[in-house]
Specification:
heterodimer, A: mainly alpha, MetI-like fold, 70% helix, B: alpha/beta, Rossmann fold, three-stranded antiparallel β-sheet, 33% helix, disordered C terminus, EC 3.6.3.- (chain B), hydrolase (chain B)
Chain lengths: 293, 246
């Protein structure tokens, strides 16, 4: 090794703070190539370990009586309830009713968000009129609008759907609008030079470049949709998961409450998963950072 | 030869600062013209005006309707496969055969179905050239298309442009910093200064040109002189204007 004397001879000596030993100025870069790595637990197993462990802890504390049933039912009871309620059709019909509300609300909210984002993103007049208003409305906590919605829409389905639609509109609007406005001006210029008209520009340049943002917005919007539904179904529901839950509450049935919460969570997870699959398929053109191993 | 481009009394100002100053210029059909000048002399502004991307101008500019451009960065749409980028904006349905033909011409037909992000800098620039040429332009505008390429790749792409020009016979306006590049490729080299064409040099050398030929060296020295660079220092200093103090 000739580095050491060379270092000393050629490089100017750096001042070393008093009291600190002179450090070796070289670093070793250790290889992490697959061949030299010891076998590791697969990622899917690592990811599952946390949730499975928590459920196991829940089961053990319930079985040993540390966690009384009046506080939280055992996972075994919850699963039993799931089977019973599925057999007698209560759970499927509740999920269908809730899903319908979430679906219709989401469609209305998404359409509204897309239309507003396009108007605000593509036209300066639209931006001036819409964007400031959206900023103002966003400051209102949408859950706080429930009393007003009951006054306006009664206690039937309409206020529930409206609340979901409202919850969906904001995250989608802001992400699509932001995406449209972050379009690379150089690409727009090149595409115009190649003869694209206004519609062509929107279709081939502006919308695709807004897509990554829109998909982030979609993930937010779907989780907000289920959240809004939980709130909305507290309003005099006669069907749906919220109805099942408020009934259970009256009889202190923590097993049914936990079951309904689990179903909400699973529906949310399923939506998130669907968007992630969609993102992967739609954004194959993008170079992504996949995270450190 | 009739004129392809006619510019009369062109001026352009940004926020009161004049960039182009009562500029006159003719480019004949099929002529290869290189435009040299320091950064900020207005050469890119002139190119954008000819491209039709900037019309807040004074004076009169006549250009062919069929014209296209390639820029310093390839500006490919990352969400369209390479061949779709080539035929982007052409009327009718995307014509794959036409795209492949254009890509073949720039020697990169095998990359037709990949995403642009997987291309190297030189490959992306070739695609950008194919996209410009597939439109069969009468005027091709090149805004430092070799600027971001490494020296080896640059030489090859320059050669390619020379061949494509011979093949298509379109007029070319090439904006560049590189005096040698201008002399290697162009029929005429213009030097821009303070918003005007300050010098107009006809390069009468036979092609392909030899960098070491005495005539070539003489012309280069004259151009460098006009640009305010004294070629008495080392070759490396004189070669790129970017590094010289203005």
């Amino acid at each position: 090794m000739t580095t050491k004397p060379l270092d000393a001879a050629v490089l100017p000596q750096r001042a070393v703070p008093a009291g600190k030993p002179a450090q070796d100025t070289r670093v070793t870069i250790r290889g992490t190539a697959k061949t030299t790595r010891r076998p590791t637990v697969p990622r899917s197993v690592r990811r599952a370990a946390g949730p499975v462990g928590l459920v196991l802890l829940w089961f053990l504390t319930s079985a040993t009586g540390v966690l009384p049933e009046s506080v939280l039912a055992s996972p075994v009871d919850v699963v039993r309830q799931a089977v019973d309620l599925t057999r007698n059709g209560e759970l499927p019909s509740a999920i269908a009713a809730s899903g319908r509300r979430a679906g219709i609300g989401f469609l209305i909210g998404a359409t509204l968000a897309l239309a507003l984002a396009l108007l605000a993103g593509l036209f300066r007049l639209g931006e001036d009129v819409i964007d400031s208003s959206m900023g103002m409305f966003r400051a209102i906590p949408w859950v706080g609008l429930i009393p007003l919605f009951i006054v306006w829409f009664g206690i039937e389905e309409t206020p529930k759907i409206a609340l979901v639609a409202l919850g969906v509109t904001y995250p989608l609007y802001f992400n699509i609008y932001g995406g449209i406005r972050s379009t690379d001006a150089q690409l727009v210029e090149a595409a115009r030079m190649m003869g694209l008209g206004r519609l062509g520009l929107i279709r081939y340049v502006i919308l695709p470049s807004a897509l990554p943002g829109a998909l982030v917005g979609l993930r937010y919007a779907l989780s907000t949709a289920w959240l809004a539904l939980v709130f909305a179904e507290q309003i005099n529901a006669d069907a749906g998961l919220g109805y099942l839950m408020s009934n259970a509450q009256q009889y202190f049935r923590t097993d049914i409450i936990v079951l309904c919460l689990a179903v909400y969570a699973l529906l949310g997870l399923a939506c998130d998963f669907a968007v992630r699959i969609l993102s992967r398929r739609l954004l194959t053109w993008r170079a992504n950072f996949e995270g450190d191993a | 030869m009739p004129n392809s481009v006619e510019i009369r009394g062109l001026s352009r100002a940004f926020d009161g600062k004049t960039v182009l100053h009562d500029l006159d210029l003719d480019i004949r059909e099929g002529e290869f013209v290189a435009l040299l000048g320091h950064s900020g002399c207005g050469k890119s502004t002139l190119l954008r005006i000819l491209a039709g991307l900037d019309d807040e101008i004074g004076g009169e500019v006549t250009v062919p309707a069929r014209r296209s451009a390639a820029f310093q960065s390839p500006r490919l749409l990352p969400w369209l496969k390479v061949w779709r980028n080539v035929v982007l904006g052409l009327p009718g349905r995307p014509d794959r055969a036409l795209a492949l033909q254009a890509l073949d011409e720039v020697g990169i037909a095998d990359r037709a179905t990949v995403w642009p992000k997987t291309l190297s800098g030189g490959q992306a620039q070739r695609v950008s050239l194919a996209r410009a040429l597939v439109r069969e332009p009468e005027l091709l505008l090149l805004d430092e298309p070799f600027g971001a390429l490494d020296a080896l790749t640059r030489g090859r792409v320059q050669q390619l442009v020379a061949e494509l020009w011979r093949l298509h016979g379109c007029a070319i306006l090439l904006v560049t910093h590189d005096v040698e590049e201008a002399l290697l490729l162009a029929d005429r080299v213009l030097v821009m200064d303070e918003g005007r064409i300050a010098h107009d040099l006809t390069v009468g050398l036979p092609r392909p040109r030899d960098l070491t030929a005495p005539e070539f060296v003489t012309l280069r020295a004259r151009l460098l002189g006009w640009l305010g660079v004294t070629p008495t220092h080392s070759e490396a200093d004189a070669k790129t204007l970017e590094r010289t103090p203005s």
